[in-house]
Amino acid sequence: MEKDSYQDALDRTTKEVNEKVPQEKEIWRATQHKDFSRNICFFMWMIIHGGYKVGNPWKDIEGHDHKAGVTESMDHILTRCDATGQSLVWDLASELWQLKTGKDLRPTLSEISVCGAMLKGDKGTSRLFRIVVSESAYLIWKLRNERLDCVLTNKLRYGKKALEKKLVEQTWKKVLQNEDRLPKELTRETGVLVGIG
């Protein structure tokens, strides 16, 4: 997404909730909110700057199966993709949010991106919103990347940077759902790896 159009979407989202359009510096400052860990700050900054490799860079990678049949975008990964387990993560986040507010929680990419600047009731509720939304989005992103672990064993593509197949198999042994039904060579599978059965 172009920076200007993305900035407009962020402005609209924040205005809908906060009833004012934030200045651009407020949006950027919100990515570094004190309620965010260093990893979350970096993650939020990268989302807003379009810094993650999603979509077209992956279309020609051998072994990368586009499970959803669409070109990946950060919006798709964090809010719509079935392969990443995002639906389960948002279901659990929504259950927690409903305990606090009685409302459902299904944030858009814009809401995720500006969660550090959004006001949701009192200070405690706003803080919970920032933490739940940012951590949930980050978890979905990490789950998506674990799915790619198998793809990264391709020595032709990644050369010296390729992961050893044995290391990937040792990493995921005893933590996968239906492990007994997985193929002998796990690294040929590119589905979602994580899940305790």
Automatic annotation (TrEMBL):
It comes from the Eukaryota. This is Uncharacterized protein. It comes from Mycena alexandri.
